[in-house]
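Cross-posting from the chemistry board since nobody answered there.

I work mostly on the small-molecule side, so proteins are not my area. We synthesized zinc ion and want a rough idea of how it might sit in this target. Sequence and SMILES are below. Is it possible to get a predicted 3D structure of the two together?
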Amino acid sequence: MENTSAVSLEANEVSGASQEASPTTWMCVLCGWVYDEEQGDPSGGVPAGTRWADVPDTWVCPDCGVGKSEFIMMQV
Ligand SMILES: [Zn+2]
């Protein structure tokens, strides 16, 4: 029986854009909300895959409203 072939399909690389640098996540020091570069913040106008450096300075934490300077990097 070979019914397990479909399992690996879901693990495909996300568009395989630029994978040289490992994605990082950033955590809000005030409320603990986490920004994941792979997921972005679509509801906040930041598309998935946006690197932290490319997140506009006008972007704020969706939970508590602080700016980027209040976030700390989390190595994954
Ligand atoms: Zn916050």
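Reply from a structural biologist on the board:
Welcome over. Reading the output above for you: Residues 11 and 26 are 23 Å apart (CA to CA). The first strand starts at residue 25 and ends at 28. Happy to explain the token format if needed.
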